[in-house]
Amino acid sequence: MNQEKEPFKKEKQQLNTYAKYSAIGFQMIGIIGVFAFAGYKIDEYQNTKTPIYTGILSLIGVFISIYIVIKSLK
């Protein structure tokens, strides 16, 4: 009877791992998206010819999301 539960446990653990890493990916997309959108809105408000705020805030979002991923993987 114990052997029957073993595959279910392993499958559940794999599913939990998959869900964890998927959530991290969506979190990264969300953070970068929010920062890029904020930069876009600032560029739109300032009427800049080159989207400097979009680029800068997008990079800041990337660095923050990488930091959060590294912190959550430890």
TrEMBL record:
Keyword Transmembrane: yes
InterPro entries: ATPase_put
One Pfam family, short name: ATPase_gene1
Key words, A-Z: Membrane, Transmembrane, Transmembrane helix
Membrane-crossing segments per the record: 21-40, 52-70
Protein name (record): AtpZ/AtpI family protein
